[in-house]
Input
Amino acid sequence: MDWQNTPESSNIEDRRGQTSASSGGGSIGTGGLGIGAIVIILIISYFTGINPAVLLGGAQMVAGSGGGQSQMAPPVEQARAPANDQETVFLRHVLGETEAVWAEILPAQKGVRYTPAILVLYNGATQSGCGGAQAAMGPFYCPNDKKVYLDTSFFREMQQKYGGGGEFAYAYVVAHEIGHHVQDLLGILDRTDAAKQNGSRTQANAISVRVELMADCLAGVWAANGNKKWNFIKQDDIAQAIATAQAIGDDNLQKAARGYAVPDSFTHGSAAQRQKWLTAGLQSGQVDSCDTGIMQ
Output
């Protein structure tokens, strides 16, 4: 991926090297929740498909409603990653590319002004507007504070655990989360969240899959339009992104974890579905091609 000559963004909040002062006592930036509670919540999230950020946030509110409010201790500075290390520079360019593309095509295609999101980089744990953020959650977008949360160790996990990797694959991950921000600006997240609350768990999972597949497609829309502007996609980049989309399909992840897949519990879509919708965005470059049944 030839990203060196593309725009850079300043909308990055680097929290790497920060840690909660209470972490030594068994709480890792989660409002007083212990390790055991965090593990249980992540297990519940895995088998139910509920966003772990929502579960952690709810658990924090319950924990804090007892004898007194449990507050996250102020961050303590440790050795910070250099602001101009290769990884950070790369992410600044990727975020800048998404901002330049969406600022142009979102008004043109949907009549909606694009307001940039903030990309928060952290190590291990941090706080988000949706509750405690943990590295085990993977990257996620929080509509409450309009920020994308990324523990950069996820990129190494993509290589080691999921068989994905490469710069364009990493850019696809960021672009997918920015795709959720685009959905937020279009009012889609509010509608789908309301629909999930009014349905069964199976219905809520099905809606989550549609939301995630649309974000995959929007990542493809970004790549298609970005390539027209900067010609930054190399021959093997598309294969990297598609391989990553397949590797993190719910069916493949569930089979790797427990030997079989349960489609009703899918929250992101199968490998075939993720490949299909990413490809749809790449081929069309149009937001309307990403309607998985949740656009009005």
